Amino acid sequence: MSQLIYEFYSPKGIIKNKNISNSSRLVLKEAEKFGVDWNIISCTQIIELSFKGKKRTFYHQVPSTTSALAKYACNNKKVTTNLLYNNGISVPKGYRVRNSSSDKFLLSVYENLQKPLVVKPSDGALGENITLNIVDFDEYLDAVDYAIEYSGKQKASVIVEEMFKGTEYRILATREKVIGVLFRRPASILGNGLDSIKELIKKKNQDPIRALKSGTTSHLKIRMDDRMLRLLQKNAMDFSSIPPKGKRIFLRRLSNVSQGGDAIDFTDKVHQSVKDIALNAINAVPGLSFAGIDFLSTDITKKQTKNSYIIIEINDTPGFDIHDFPYEGKNRHAAREFLFLMFPELKQKS
Question: Which domains can be identified in the chain, with CATH numbers?
């Protein structure tokens, strides 16, 4: 399948805009396998699928089976948290603050929460502008400003939460089934005793599973920047340091694949209670038919208790190519499940 690009109207005519996501490309490949016709509606980012007179559409990874209400809830992290809490699901304690919040309110939020803290944009994505492990008030204020920068809106807001100490996983699910579970290892390199961290990053970035921008691969290259350097310096290293053979050096605190992390399939290792909680979570959001659930657990292989896990976020437009092409593990055929969601009758042909 050739590279697919969205278009838009301009005074010069129709101009190519940006690549469709790799997950969307995988859906179109599956559609062709099942005899489903597809078309990118001109100058939109909406893709139309047609099968035996029936038409369905999707936008990025949001199928037409997902409602506007679900989109609203998932785009506002505090609304999502409240929906989960009201359905008996463990969520982190936290508050929403705005760029207009008074110094007194900011201080009251800080003092009311147990440290360390997490600060993130209320409408954020891809792990951008999130700060973890905050224990200092000045660092907290800087993190709030950093998160507000992401939105840039006149009435921007951010979420301040208590940080849960556990391992993070991404669960992909419909309202009826869990499709896959991934451990997303933060961006890292494995020392060989010979190469510097900079050289090891360059070598890892040569893996064909990685690209500079999303569109054709499931993983992104590791970007070297000042925040990464500061993390290394906190551990008495820099990009020229040569780590010992077999020692893994973590380059980010965030586990997002979009930040250069590794997706490792964990589906067959999780306890059934994890899948039950995930299904409860997606069904807690009205009209949400397909989602990525960010799940933290002290041990995902054991039966979960109220205090052993939390759900920190639900994404209504999850990139699922990492489930089909993980860094390690099985292909979970998420693109096919996405297609089946809109055309259930295709399951009989699989």
Answer: 5-65 (no CATH), 93-163 (3.30.1490.20), 188-247 (no CATH)
